[in-house]
Amino acid sequence: MSMDVDLAWTIILHAPGRNKRLTRAIINTSKQAAVTTETGAIKKLLKKIYDHITRLFKALSAHFDGDDSRPTDKLVLDTWRSFLQPIRALRKLPSCGEFVAARLLLFTGGAFLEEPGLSLSYNEETLVEETNPLHGFTADLDDALLEPLKKMWELSQFRERFDWVFTRFNVNDYEMTEALALSPQELEDLDGIRGIKYYYLASDDANDADDANDADAADESDESDDDDESDEDDADELERYNLYTGPMPRWDCGEQDWDNLEWKRRGSDGPITGWLEYRIQEDELPDENFMNGFHIFRRSHQFCLDARQKSEAHIGRQQHQTFDEVARRCGLPPEMRNRILSYIEYRDPFPYLEKLDLAEAYVPFPKVGKHCTRCDNTEEESSANQTCPQKAIHVWNLALRRFHTFHMDDCHGWSLCTRHDCTGHHDDGENWKVTEEPQFTRYIESLAARGNDEFVSLDKVGLGPMSPIRLKAEADDEREDALFRGRGIYYESSEDAKMIGGLGGLKHAMIHGHTLLAVWKGDDCHSSFHHGAKAVEPTWQYARSLYDERVAKVVIKRLHSGDDCESCIEADEEFIDFPWMAI
């Protein structure tokens, strides 16, 4: 039953005030909790926040009569944003603060995905400015989640796997006990960690009538986050499948999809992988809608995946070291020690992650757009004014886990800044612009080398081109399927391989504006199919707005010197850029 519209408006308008009062109550409780082990007051506050979020969710689901009676997108986003204040205050709670804050941020993201309260329909001509507030809010939500995750990573001494992040949870009477858990262990004891389960069917066991396209279609349909698929027909179907119980594969460890298996998935990893879609309307085709979307927790999700890799290696190495020391003291023969150690398997992290300090690297988006008092005393056309940090664009490189900074130049265009952690206000004589190759190569390598005294090249840390990059057509088809098909358990691995630049590597993807998926050569040099390549849109970039991402891609691609480029590969680009975003 839909909520009364007047009641819905009351809830929406009063939410910020309630959240301010909740924040004060949380701060008082955190002071009391420092001298007592009583958890009842903490759980009572948590339930209030969950209830307030749920009330807003229901209010935004009300049937408003027409657009004029609906709250504006700005009001709705401001209301959602008001929940960040009490949730951040939860971090001050001793022992449990970081965990409960992260859980509530995930719940907020899940509620927002289910009922954002926004129109989510934009005109192509005004898409960038209309979606700026939306992308800005989700970036703030993502940044807020990163803070407790980073703190828990440090407190765990780099052992935390964040399994509790990858789970769905809806707060109702049945699940409220789980929602009020104060630690990952308490949540696990309540059987509250339920992520995706993957099931596979070997090709030999599949129906011969099912061709590969049917398998692909089935897999795509299972990429949804439907959780309640436990009816008898579904259970009967899954009886033919085997539950996968191993670790998630990694392409850089040679764990690629060489098997012709059919996959199904059940369950959900919850809001951490949440995808928000919106419609783009074209004036020339009013009846047609182009869909676009994005992950609302993109950086937090990547942080957890990175932490899992480093945690696996950290724990595995410690186990090997401990066993080796005990075995030596007990006089165990070397061959027996080595045989036993071979059963204690672990994978090293991706080479670039090996030396990367995750907590240091994953910093929040720099704040821009505020008034700058220093610029009041400088000429408007001066370099110091044009490169003001409040006017800069910052774009996160998902592969490097670092920010790129862009400033306006003398020609009122955007240029890439050479400075790491740029503070802006560059003087007229300061050489801050990356203008061409090989300067861009030196810049990108210096960024990748931060914190790694042993850095040699992008190739050595896994960010260079794959070798050999060009294969015979049949072998290339097999490689493309194995690396980028992304079925079942291989989805994350496939996305990761694309993120670091695909076959061409990161620098190639950035400078050429595409990610290579296939590069082949034929046997017959006279054939029109002697050689070729296929590429998709690059995915290394992530920013607070579509415009900022577009700036990063265009500016860096303009640094490409085609005549002198040794890595140029002409490819069929299978993506449609946003033509209405001129830079």
From TrEMBL:
Residues 209-236 are annotated as: Disordered. This is Uncharacterized protein. It comes from Gibberella subglutinans (Fusarium subglutinans).
